[in-house]
Design goal:
The protein is mostly helical. It has helices at residues 2-7, 35-45, 56-70, 88-105, 116-121, 125-130, 143-155, 167-177, 181-198, 205-215; strands spanning 12-14, 19-21, 24-28, 74-78, 108-111. The chain is built from 10 helices and 5 strands, in the order H-E-E-E-H-H-E-H-E-H-H-H-H-H-H. The longest helix is centred in the middle third of the chain and has 18 residues, at 88-105.
Length: 216
């Protein structure tokens, strides 16, 4: 979903300043709450050459300078629940980092993650006062889900129609994914890859069943 949001808000080149403007910057929280890895990951997403072994202060300074130049209106940080993988001290340091960036750059910040992300934020009263949790409901069998599967079919690089919106497929995908958008995306992409490798060029139930079997 983060990738889709970025596609709908593409970068634009400013002829006057000669700098590419980036309305949305999206990154992932490192697997463990590490400030050095956070800034290194942020610079990577910005496409900025940097020495990953440089000191924290240098990476922070470079990231802030580039962010001011590209002038994002929003910073999206995914996998925020990774904060819980660290010690209390590491969690506090990373939360302070997020607050500092939002204040320093005066941009909106969106934090994305599992329900554990809320637990991570609850350790800081200021963070909880700044962010309102918004729960994305799981998909159910509906016209909306059928439209989603049809939209996937339009963008998957297959030569033949798969008719992903038919009831048999809808019910299987729903059961295999638990109604989670990310799981649906992974399932369909893996099934599409399998169908291409097999030369079928369309997603059939056997492709979905095989992918679901090896990933669960």
């Amino acid at each position: 979903m983060t990738a889709k949001f970025r596609r709908t808000h593409p970068n634009e080149f400013d002829d006057k300043s000669g700098v590419e403007q980036c309305p949305v910057v999206a990154m992932q929280m490192p697997p463990t709450p590490d400030q050095h890895r956070f800034y290194s990951g942020l610079l990577f997403e910005l496409g900025a050459p940097h020495n990953a072994s440089a000191g924290l202060a240098s990476l922070e300074r470079l990231a802030r300078d580039i962010l001011r130049r590209v002038a994002p209106r929003m910073l999206v940080v995914d996998e925020v629940h990774h904060l819980l993988a660290g010690t209390y001290r590491e969690q506090r340091a990373s939360l302070n980092l997020l607050k500092y960036l939002a204040n320093d750059l005066q941009i909106s910040m969106v934090l994305v993650g599992t329900r554990d992300a809320v637990l991570a934020l609850q350790t800081d009263a200021q963070m909880m006062s700044r962010y309102t949790p918004f729960k994305i409901p799981r998909w159910r069998e509906s016209d909306g889900l059928r439209r989603l599967l049809a939209a996937f079919e339009r963008v998957l690089p297959l030569r033949k129609p798969s008719d992903l919106a038919r009831r048999e497929v809808v019910q299987f995908v729903l059961g295999a994914s638990g109604g989670l958008t990310g799981e649906i995306s992974t399932l369909l992409n893996d099934a599409a890859e399998l169908s291409i490798r097999s030369g079928d060029e369309c997603i059939e139930m056997r492709h979905l069943e095989h992918v679901a079997r090896i990933t669960h």
